[in-house]
Write a structure and sequence with these properties.
Layout: H1 8-26, H2 32-51, H3 55-62, H4 70-78, E1 83-84, E2 97-104, E3 107-114, H5 120-125, H6 133-148, E4 153-159, H7 166-170, H8 173-185, E5 191-200, H9 201-205, E6 212-216, E7 220-222, H10 226-234, H11 240-247, H12 251-256, E8 262-264, H13 275-293, H14 298-310
Parallel strand pairs: 3-4, 4-5, 5-6, 5-7, 6-8
Antiparallel strand pairs: 1-2, 2-3
């Protein structure tokens, strides 16, 4: 297990607990009482730390190297029923955007999302979860197929942003994202959107329009990352913590601002600390959300979705 900077007290207690237990196993010394006390202290320290996380600490948790990614959730929730579909039928198959058909319970879904890598090689292969225009066009192709066959859509958002390279701009990155946004507002099937990690800028919005938009407790959703915001305002990354607070990017902030509908609770310590529990929670959330949407007619779905997004940002003096 890798520990973040603010998790050092937990790491130290965990090591003490492991050593005490090892002494008890390897010798005749009774250390059961010491182990109990350390276990109790470990639990209370965890509660205290994770109860008072700052915006920047949540950003750090959202990027934790052990945190589950899109394909982890898909494979855990859908199992062998998932059939990945490839390509935008125009340029290429973008490895940073994955999607396909899969079953959650007894219901088929078109599931798509950004995929990051686990090590240097796979991060390069997945372009660090930053999709090119063909990734967004692939996503749109799959969503239109879902609409044609009456299959609900689930999207997982986890990206530091759309790829900002010259080739991406030449192939119409802005147009591809804008096209997805307008098409998703009028898609005639239910759309469930879940921010599972990083939700940055247009890269997130390109698959982020839905009837139900949810965020994991330790994810973030914003127009810009704290580091980039800091570099623009202060010409340095040194103020990233301050920028994170000002951006109101946490799930709690997004819920208050009515940008999202629901916050999905994570296990104590983050999604990576108990993956199985997180997978079960997300599966229940998807099934419950679909139950709430499945009986609405296409017109009702589109009207409610348009009303939801039209009312965002409205200020009454």
């Amino acid at each position: 297990m890798e520990y973040l900077e603010f998790e050092v007290p937990i790491k130290e207690l965990q090591e003490q607990f492991n050593k005490a237990c090892a002494i008890g196993v390897d010798s005749d010394v009774d250390v059961s009482e010491t182990c109990k006390q350390l276990e109790k202290k470990l639990a209370s320290t965890k509660k205290e730390i994770y109860k008072n996380l700052t915006a920047w600490q949540r950003v750090q948790l959202s990027r934790h190297p052990n945190r589950p990614y899109t394909l982890d959730y898909i494979n855990a929730i859908c199992g062998e029923t998932f059939l990945e579909l490839h390509g935008d039928r125009n340029v290429a198959d973008d490895k940073a955007m994955v999607g396909g058909l899969g079953k959650v319970g007894d219901q088929s879904f078109m599931i798509l999302g950004q995929q990051k890598g686990y090590n240097t090689k796979t991060r390069q292969y997945r372009n660090f979860g930053m999709a090119n225009p063909e990734g967004y066009r692939k996503a749109l192709r799959l969503m239109k197929s879902a609409e044609k066959f009456g299959v609900p859509v689930v999207t997982f958002i986890d990206t530091p942003g759309a790829y900002p390279g010259l080739e991406a701009e030449e192939r119409g990155q802005g147009e591809a994202i804008a096209r997805n946004i307008i098409e998703m507002t009028r898609l005639k099937v239910p759309i469930i959107v879940i921010v599972i990690g990083e939700g940055a800028s247009g890269g997130a919005l390109g698959i982020g329009v839905g009837d139900k938009v949810m965020m994991l407790e330790n994810s973030w959703y914003s127009v810009i990352s704290p580091e980039n915001c800091s570099s623009i305002l202060w010409r340095s990354w040194d103020h990233k913590e301050q920028a994170a607070e000002a951006l109101k990017l946490t799930a709690t902030d997004a819920k208050k601002l009515k940008v999202i509908d629901t916050i999905i609770k994570e296990p104590l310590g983050g999604a990576h600390s108990n993956r199985e529990e997180m997978f079960k929670t997300l599966k229940k959330v998807i099934i419950k959300s679909h139950e709430e949407l499945k009986n609405l007619s296409p017109k009702e779905l589109v009207d409610a979705r348009m009303e939801k997004y039209s009312s965002m940002g409205v200020f009454k003096g």
